[in-house]
Amino acid sequence: MPKGLRRYYGSGDLHFITCSCCQRKPWLHTDERRDLFLNILEEVRKEHRFVVLGYVVMPEHFHLLMSEPQVGTPSTAMQSVKQRFAQRVVPRRRQRRPAGTRSLPKNSKERATRRDSRPFS
Question: b/e string for 63-102 if b means 16 or more Cβ within 10 A?
Answer without folding.
Answer: ebebbbbeebebeebbebbbebbeeeeeeeeeeeeeeeee
